[in-house]
Amino acid sequence: MGIHPGRMGSQQRVPDCTRCTAMLTHSDSSSSGTQNTGDSPDSASKKNDFYDRNLALFEEELDIRPKVSSLLSRLVNYTNITQGAKEHEEEESAEASRRKTPKSPNMGTLMGVYLPCLQNIFGVILFLRLTWIVGMAGIIQSLLIVLMCCSCTMLTAISMSAIATNGVVPAGGAYFMISRSLGPEFGGAVGLCFYLGTTFASAMYILGAIEIFLKYLVPQAAIFHTADSQSSDSAMLNNMRVYGSICLSLMAVVVFVGVKYVNKLASLFLACVIISIVSIYAGAIKSISHPPEFPICMLGNRTLVRDLFDVCAKTVVNGNITEPSQLWERFCVPGNMSSAQCDDYFIQNNVTEIQGIPGLSSGIIRDNMWGDYMMKGEILDKAGLQSVDAHGAAENLYMYVSADIATSFTLLVGIFFPSATGIMAGSNRSGDLRDAQKSIPVGTILAITTTSLVYISSVVLFGSCIEGVVLRDKFGDAVRKNLVVGTLSWPSPWVIVIGSFFSTVGAGLQSLTGAPRLLQAIAKDNIIPFLRVFGHGKTNGEPTWALLLTALIAELGILIASLDMVAPILSMFFLMCYLFVNLACAVQTLLRTPNWRPRFRYYHWALSFLGMSMCLALMFISSWYYAIVAMGIAGMIYKYIEYQGAEKEWGDGIRGLSLSAARYALLRLEVGPPHTKNWRPQLLVLLKLDEDLHVKYPRMLTFASQLKAGKGLTIVGSVVQGNFLDSFGELQAAEQAIKNMMEIERVKGFCQVVVAAKVREGIVHLIQSCGLGGMKHNTVVMGWPYGWRQSEDPRAWKTFINTVRCTTAAHLALMVPKNVSFYPSNHERFTDGSIDVWWIVHDGGMLMLLPFLLKQHKVWRKCKMRIFTVAQMDDNSIQMKKDLATFLYQLRIEAEVEVVEMHDSDISAYTYERTLMMEQRSQMLRQMRLSSAERQREAQLVKDRHSLVRMGSLYSDEEEEVVDIPPDKVHMTWTRERCEAERRNRNNAPENFREDQSNVRRMHTAVKLNEVIVNRSHDARLVLLNMPGPPRNTDGDENYMEFLEVLTEGLERVLLVRGGGREVITIYS
């Protein structure tokens, strides 16, 4: 209900605002005075009178603005909106006030931020992959991986804390913060990246849960089996796909039925995580004195799959008989003790057993300090064991534990990073926090510190307690298909297996709950048109359609079926999101915008840039091709929102950054005028509006867009005649009409409308003041005053000539498109024809440059360019043509060249006739104007001074025409009649004979040139020619208009061009 201070507008909007304020005042008085039943109406009215007396000085402001008490009461009652709900401006509507007051948020730092962050950060990677990462990378490089990922998230958390504490943050998480800090384009792009990351995270958690279920909990549940053990991987992937799809469907149903069940189970899942981690530490401590018994069977230095045989020996003694063991039968022909039928490697190497969990005090940490990256299919071996290198049979490779994928440092970074994500869980719940600005920084940073310490200590403990070949064994094949982390835990491996299963299921449910709400928030912001359908949901606000889309995208991740393949994908999307959180903080800090006042003080732009750099580096370290794809997706979304999305103004930092960049560029441009090579027409287009404030000649804008093709500066100006205080509403309406027409004609530029008492003065103001610094116009585009001959009013053409004189005085170029209604629209295409240039006077090269610029546009591209120049009697036309062709070659402009000779200098009878008609018409109109002057003066006296201001046309003024008498001929005591008589005498004086002869010569030039131009260019698509300058003596203004009319008669499209007095085209590079 509050009125924006900057939008007072015209007086026409005051009644609405008064109504709003009256309602506010009524509510204030009712809430303060009449709630007490003891107060009588008289006492209430006295109280109102008391307020009125105190605020009488501000009565005008109170009509359109609320009192401070009203404003503060609304701000105090403000509640954080739920994720995906309306923005707070809409929340303040009358509909919201009728709603039931929501329960006040009361969650503290521990329950609201710290524990949710812990639950989201700890996940499937810790239980399923961290031991494998330590085994492959070694303790040193594993610590480096953990340090890189956790440092990246810590720096991001610092930036996020600064943004989250800069004002009230409604619950929208990273999307809300980035979109309001960097604008709708970045916000939409990063919001969708964050959404995709969260969706793929749900797929990763589901795959982790299914891996635990099929590998360690119920291996018998597998649907697909293969007789050939070597191709068991494909069967396993198919099992993952089937069970993953079933699990996803069940989870989607749970989320659809009610999120409250998910939230109630969250604490149970968190307890599973904490119990599992505690059991790891307990098992590591116990291993100092009593390491768990998990023997590993080694053949030579190769690790054997332990569940394929019973005894780790080649033979067994049954009574007194030595019999081949199951292991023997795997490597040899069954039932035959002859060594000839056995695998060579099996015969030449011994079978030994080593301890899988030597314990914390065993000193195994020295062996696990350095990495041992492997290729796909490479057998796990232990370096210290004796082995005879012999060629083994290929069909026996299934007996050995081998690497299922090729590993490298970069791959492990991509797989581990998802275990550091989840830091946004606190900011996502900001609507439920008692003091979000205090809880979010403290809780998030404490959670990251806790998880980082757990990861670092886990890396050291795993490397200190577990044998290297077991660490590198991803699925626990060497320890009878046990989960490798489970072998270290106490009191039983089942604690970890069951705990990790429930924690991954819980994390998957959380992701599947959060992702649709994030998509709903983006859809409700209405910045991406095709996502609008996902803003709708059930009556209680649950995002049904968004959940359906999320489930479909998560299904794509499940069809990949490999945890190690899905993890780098979501790493990219999360890293992209964190990168822009850091960028948002850095931009806001460096711009020092007045609204940037975060309560969290421990941030710096350098830390944000470091975090941004780390995010970018981690993206390309983990997978350069995924990074390029993720950036491409974000880039496409950005450009889509920029071109198709709704216009939003959120006071974001990119707008401020653009302003700073523009200021810097403008200050640089102030150094001096542009070099000739950089000169391009910077247009000021003077538009004429009709009485309904509609653009009278839209093709002026079409021509400007074709000439500019989106480059350089275009200012569209117009004049509203009247008083600024009374005409402000008309000014806004005129601006809006021009902006709408600019959008239709695709003119990229600025609109400037001024209010002036006289249109002529308004145009002069525009010519003088438009632009800023170095970004000023250098060319004026003005329409032709059509119908000036038929009008008795001379002001139309006088305004036109005055503008020509002003542009000349300001050293600006001038373009006057005549018959502009016949100019082509942007949808037309000229497939043939020519643009003819009639180069009569050198104007700095404007006539050469303009056709070249027009030919860049698709409308004129197929037109060829022809240049005509005029040769006099004493000119060598052949040499002129050669010189002109050379000049055009050096200018790199392709055009046909033609020299037109004008020998006939006799003045024709037609010329005399036209001149006589022109002068007789001028004299007749002058007499009519002088006789009507008195009548106009009488009418002016009775005119109502406070009538509605009428919109004047651009080339006519409403002021009374002043009789032009030179100052030295006017006596201050002359009457109006004496002044008119003096003027008549002067017009009939003999000295005018020379001027008449001058008019005849000028008319002769116009007639002859027009004949030549019409003869050569009657079928041209466009004719450009030099515009003659107006006469120095203002008495000849009307004749000047006649000369221009004669010069351009019979031509369909004409562009009159007048240079600005400087060179605009050069032959030099």
From TrEMBL:
Keywords, in A-Z order: Cell membrane, Chloride, Glycoprotein, Ion transport, Membrane, Phosphoprotein, Potassium, Potassium transport, Symport, Transmembrane, Transmembrane helix, Transport
UniProt catalytic activity: K(+)(in) + chloride(in) = K(+)(out) + chloride(out)
Assigned GO CC terms: plasma membrane; synapse
Intracellular or extracellular location(s): Cell membrane
GO molecular function terms attached to this record: potassium:chloride symporter activity
Protein name per the record: Solute carrier family 12 member 4-like
Entry membrane topology: Multi-pass membrane protein
Annotated spans, Disordered: 24-48, 83-103
Sequence ranges assigned to domain Amino acid permease/ SLC12A in this UniProt record: 113-285, 384-684
Entry's family note: Belongs to the SLC12A transporter family. K/Cl co-transporter subfamily.
Tagged with keyword Phosphoprotein: yes
Main subcellular localisation: membrane
NCBIfam families xref list: 2a30 (TIGR00930)
Chain ranges of the SLC12A transporter C-terminal domain: 698-816, 830-1069
GO annotation, biological process: cell volume homeostasis; chemical synaptic transmission; chloride ion homeostasis; potassium ion homeostasis; potassium ion import across plasma membrane
Comp. bias regions, Polar residues: 24-43
Regions that span the bilayer: 186-207, 242-259, 266-285, 405-425, 445-471, 491-509, 545-563, 569-590, 602-619
InterPro entries referenced in this protein's UniProt entry, alphabetically: AA-permease/SLC12A_dom, KCL_cotranspt, SLC12_C, SLC12A_fam
UniProt KW Ion transport keyword: yes
Source species: Salarias fasciatus (Jewelled blenny)
A Pfam family matched in the record: AA_permease
